[in-house]
Amino acid sequence: MKFSESLAKIGQPLTYRRAWRRLRRVLHPIGTEPLLGKIDQARLRELQAKYSALSPSTPSLWRHYSKYADVEKHLRHNIQRAQDFNLHRTTYPHEILDIGCGAGFFLFVAEALGHRGLGLDVSGIPVFDELIDLLGVDRLEYRINGFEKLPDFGRKFDLITAFATAFHGGHEDSWRWGEAEWDFFLTDLKTHLKPGGRIFFDLNAAYDGKYYTPEILKVFQKHGGKLERSHVSFVAGT
Ligand SMILES: C[S@@+](CC[C@H](N)C(=O)[O-])C[C@H]1O[C@@H](n2cnc3c(N)ncnc32)[C@H](O)[C@@H]1O
Predict the structure, then answer these.
(1) At residue 2, does pLDDT exceed 70?
(2) How far is the CA of 166 from the centre of ligand 1 (A)?
(3) Residue whose CA is at the smallest distance from ligand 1 atom 1
(4) CA distance 119 to 25
(5) Whole-number CA gyration radius for the chain
(6) CA 132, CA 197: separation in Å to the nearest integer?
(7) Is the pTM of this model over 0.70?
(8) What b-and-e string marks burial along 143-166, b requiring 16 or more CB atoms within 10 Å of the CB?
(9) Ligand 1 nearest atom to the CA of residue 165, by list position
(10) Which of 80, 90, 175, 225 has the most CB atoms around its CB within 10 Å?
């Protein structure tokens, strides 16, 4: 990066927000070791050996997701996510729904901090299925489809998350959600929040390398979305 670009970055509020998040993580750490200690190490080693030696004939998506067998790395990443939501310093246990929960790392961390989680994802990706089982995360097998309401979960949530989102179509898919699908989805998703509840997406760059189109941005704004690069968050009642 050029010196002039570095200077320009110093003047940006985003730079301060990121620095503040990093500082807070240092000031209020969550150790990785105690979390690793909750996992059956013999089963974990077996799983890691299996996914480090997949045959070339294994479906490419399964091979792509085998990187999630690096549990220590993904725990560290999800600890940071939990820290950024202040989940280790909240005054009451949160009900959390994690959409596209994958291996379930985020909910595993959240539950270790005293919260109650429900993951939502399709099944059939072996490394995710096995890690969900190993980590003991509660997952509802469910495929999100455009213009379809989510099921009744029997409870409302303080926090709804979706990290590295794929349900709206990824860059490798021939389809993508447009503004109508997003509007329908956000309207429905908000009905699953408790008063004061929050929604947070960390979007994949699915729209020609961008996180959203100008039309989708308008939908996010209509729903009160706050944006920070790939992050979009919403609060109940807005
Ligand atoms: C890139 S992975 C991210 C996993 C996890 N959120 C994380 O950050 O570690 C995307 C996840 O979204 C799930 N997914 C994709 N399309 C979905 C859909 N239509 N409904 C529910 N889950 C979906 C995939 O199965 C996968 O677990």
Answers:
(1) no
(2) 5
(3) 164
(4) 25
(5) 19
(6) 25
(7) yes
(8) ebebeeebeeeeeebbbbbbbebb
(9) 10
(10) 225
Q: Determine what percent of the chain falls in helix, strand and coil, rounding each to the nearest 5.
A: 40, 15, 40
Q: CB within 6 Å of ligand 1 — which residues?
A: 100-102, 105, 120-122, 125, 128, 143-144, 163-164, 166-167
Question: What is the reported pLDDT for 15?
Answer: 85
Residue nearest to atom 3 of ligand 1 (CA): 164
Q: Which atom of ligand 1 is nearest to the CA of 102?
A: 27
Compute the mean pLDDT over every residue in the chain, rounded to the nearest whole number: 94
Residue with tokens 């213009």, as numbered in its chain = 147
**Residue whose structure tokens are 């220590």:** 72
Among candidate residues 92, 110, 221, the one with its CA nearest the CA of residue 161: 110
Q: How are beta strands 193-202 and 231-235 bridged, if at all?
A: antiparallel
Q: What is the dihedral of CA 180, 182, 183, 189, to 10 degrees?
A: 140
